[in-house]
Write a structure and sequence with these properties.
- The chain has 11 helices and 8 strands.
- It is α/β, with parallel strands linked by helices.
- It has a single domain, classed as Thiamin diphosphate (ThDP)-binding fold, Pyr/PP domains (Rossmann fold, 3-Layer(aba) Sandwich), CATH 3.40.50.
- The protein has a 6-stranded parallel sheet, sandwiched between helices. A two-stranded antiparallel ribbon has the order 5-6.
- The C terminus is likely disordered.
Length: 321
Amino acid sequence: MLLMRATEERALSLYRQGKVPGSFYDGRGQEATAVGPAFALGPRDRACILHRDLGAHFIRGVTPGRVLAQMMGRAGGVTGGKDANMHFADQRLGCVQMVSMLPDMALVACGLAIAFQMRREPRVAHTWFGDGATANGQWHEAMNVAGVRQLPVVFVLENNQWAYSTPNEREFAVDPMERAAGYGFPGVTVDGNDVEAVFEASAEACERARSGGGPTLIEAETMRMHGHGAHDDMSYVPKRMFEEWEARDPIRRYEERLREDGVDVEEIRTSVKQELDRETEWALAQPPPEPTAATEGVFGEADPELGDGEAPWSRWEGEDA
């Protein structure tokens, strides 16, 4: 969680220096909802990670330097600097690049889960989405097909209180978690700022999915502490709401718990800073991609299972999930 926040702070600094093109989006305040579920996934599970869930990329094995290089459009980025500063994922690590039209990734996860189900593989497809996404038709389509087919998929709803500037009460009349039963599968609500609580709910949901028990909708209650993007000053959010959620900061809360367990939190902070400094230096040294590479990797040229070379997931075969 600390590495996620520190990397996003560094990226925001680079953005303000003009080194990150486009806009900038982060997940400050909801690090636990990204990190907790990612730890529940096995190597052969598949993750459809959204733009506010950077910590999940780190858990899957992506380094901060590759993320920063990607945000700056450098060749050393996760996807070689292509497709902007948030549409990236390393397929070799079991991740799928996000689609901006949220919550389309819920349908992508269902597609992955259908493949696992047809192959009778004990694997899980997992994705995240915000509260605003639940007001879109694609979300309902994904929930319906997941319930009808009892797919091995886990949905994490990051209820971060605001869909851009729209509060929860203007988004839905019924808590989205309660809708899960209407689609034929369980829904649970957890404290999204308690990383262990989110992990435990996700681990249980993943085990249910792997064993043929079908999907789960997890509502993680949290708060987006920065605007929708760097361009958004969040002037529409009441001050008292900021104060309430700042007191529930997931990193600070977990640091307190770790200190009680005798963990040297300052040592962790120092380690993260040192790692990020090294990774930033590496990212800044990466060259821009060659113009000739613009058309490479745009279209799928072979089935990853049937085509030439090693399948992306084959190196995980036989390993303990």
